[in-house]
Specification:
The protein is mainly alpha-helical and about 190 residues long. The protein has helices at about 1-20, 35-45, 55-75, 80-95, 115-125, 125-135, 135-145, and strands at about 25, 50, 100-105, 110-115. Pfam families: SEO_C (PF14577).
Amino acid sequence: MEWIESFTTATKRVAKALDIGIEMVYVGKKNAKEEHKKITGLIKEKELSHTWEDDNVWFFWNQLESMLYWKTQHGKTIENDVIKQEVMKMLGYDSSKNGWAVFYTGSGELVKANGEKVLSTMHSFEEWEKLAKQMGFIPALREKLERVIPHHYCARLILPGNGGRIPERVQCAECGRPMELNFLYRCGAE
């Protein structure tokens, strides 16, 4: 919850400085119903942003997983398929402990990043404010985010059981380096 408050406060400050409108929605994680209810309650109480209901959250993450499996079954890789690359980034965000953000304009401009990167970038707005006023918010944010070098692992990707079809090699959708393969057993109880 601390990250959400810090992120929304910083983002609203940036939007105000640039005199742009911004709408935010909390999506949540795929398998965290109790946590989602608690967080959405606090978000509504503090009027931080809009929120999605549990069914919409589940549908969002399942659609992304379905897209990934379809792309994999049809021989697509992140090297030859931009959609698969972007889907893997989004699924990696669900697997991470940190938050994440996607910024989108009606004109089709889009930028996304993991929570740590986007929050530090929002907090350092004074460094790229001039650029944002020249280029626009999303292009300047994208440029600034591309310069942020992670201090540790970029992302992790947790794939649900998929009938024994484990990809031999997976590239990190954030930085392009090969990802380490580990097996994780996790209790499904919340």
